[in-house]
Amino acid sequence: MTLRARIALLTTGLLLVALLVLGVVLHGLLGNFLLGSLKRDLVEASAQVARLVDLGGQALLEAGLPADLYAEIQLVLEEDPALLAREGGISLQKSPALGVHRLLVDEKAYKTLLETGEVWTEVALPREGPPLVLLVYGRKVEVRVGGTPWKGLLLVGRPVEGVRATLAQFARLYAATALLVLLLVFLLLRPLLARALEPLEWVAAKARTLVGPEGALPRRIEPLPEPLVQDEVGSLVRALNGMLLRLQKALEAQVRFLQDASHELRTPLTAILGHVGYLLRRTPLTEAQRESLEVVKREAERMGKLVSDLLELSQTGSWRLEPAPLRLLDLLEEAQEEFSKSFEGEIRVEASPDLWVLGDRDRLHQVFANLLSNALKAGAKTVWLRAFGVEGRVVVRVEDDGEGIPEEHLPHLFERFYRVDKARDRARGGSGLGLAIVKAILEAHGGEIWVESEVGKGTAFSFTLPSAAPLPPPP
Asked: Is 259 in the same domain as 350?
């Protein structure tokens, strides 16, 4: 997910939460206001009825209860909340709005009314369709009938469906408005974010151009143009330019080192090849001497090619591969022949002559040379070079019965300059670069490498290479 999308979603989400909280608060405030107004109306209506009750029963009977009010005056002969909830008190007067129904509350409300003198509750009156819900206010009164005072209860109520309808309408309007606001914010946010993040995207695009094809670094890293505005983006660009300047200096130092090293190595290699060639052409040699000189010549020529590649690497930043169909058995036997002369143990080759791979011969020779050299340094007595085909690829295993590698070191073996035992590896001439080079070469061939090892039993390096069709026989 892009940064622009994350900011848009986060902003929209925060706005949604804010609108939800605001909606809940406004809904509660509106509900409290409407219910408060309704309660004030009921209190005023009950006060008017109470004044009529104070004037006496005859005045009450003559005036009657307001027609728009759901009200009833009940005489209480026995203060029993359960009995009152079932039958009610003696109905002295009812408003016309009640019709044939009585205004009775539940037992708990009657109990509160008798104990405290007033109560708020809700009553559902039956009617066609859903029942009519009333907000009821009850209070104690004293009714004089024929000059005799009686304990009474005054219950007045009004419907709450108007309040609930208003709240429902408010919720619908608010939800529609909130959705519209969210949609507008989302639509407006995208171009605003695009405009705000455009400098960052431009910086990222410029940074991507610093790396050439196949990861090659340019000979010169140009700084990024700094924006005129003094904001976070400008600070980022200036910091990047400082880093690029230091990187440019490091690259220039690296190129100088590689060029100087390549130049210095060419001279002794030329001398070695010249003297070996002279010995091969002009001096009588035994078969063993000639074979050894041929090995020296071949390795010196390979080293010369590596020096040339090193020089090319200093100029282009990448290794050059010349892949071609190769018979794998030839590569394995060549490595076996080269290392058998300096190895007191045994190197065994197990591979079908029909296995062909697509690769660079010299680079793959480096791979086998590094892996065999590591096996010999590990004290192996026997090394197996095995190969087999699997689903269009070739798997090669270099196994040994050496000292093995502790498990905690296995994930780091292919890191540059990593050594399992620094003191012992340094004594053996190791630099910690061999396996890193092996991994880079195999990845350049489109393969991969992994390792299995157990202390005291040995190590097995496995890697894959793309398979190839055999070369046609010469005419």
From this structure: no
